[in-house]
Amino acid sequence: MVRYFEEISADETHDLGSYRADREELLSFARRYDPQLIHTDPEVAKETMYGGLIASGWHTASACMALLVEGFLRETATLGSFGLEELRWRTPVRPGDTVSVELDVLDTTPSSSREDRGYVDLEVSAENGDGEEVIYWRSTNIFLTRAAGDAWPLGADG
Length: 158
What we know:
By secondary structure, the protein is of the alpha+beta class. The protein has four helices and five strands, in the order βααααββββ.
């Protein structure tokens, strides 16, 4: 069943699950998308302030985004987002870390100009196994209203 704007409430919290930071996946991603030596060369990374290889923040964000889609967005009539209002990489993710991701719905606002949609302020945060926050972001996402459900490609029943 698809959830529309009216069915999303401020103060919802969702456990989005977790992922394990696989060393080879971190290296592969970094070599292609963020080829800084702290992400691609374990020997050089040892000599930095990090004391070893760390994940690209973009890899961490991508892994968290996948969990956000699977654990929340996939069941909603989402039209995307305006982008991130804030993004923070708090603590480096290291190979072997287990990263747990949580979503908080902060606020919902009906559109004042388009009756077919509303805006939902979301906060995504993730922690490593030591309880340290590794990433945080805040965004405003766009969701169709139930009345506009015919515009949703999956139909009212998802």
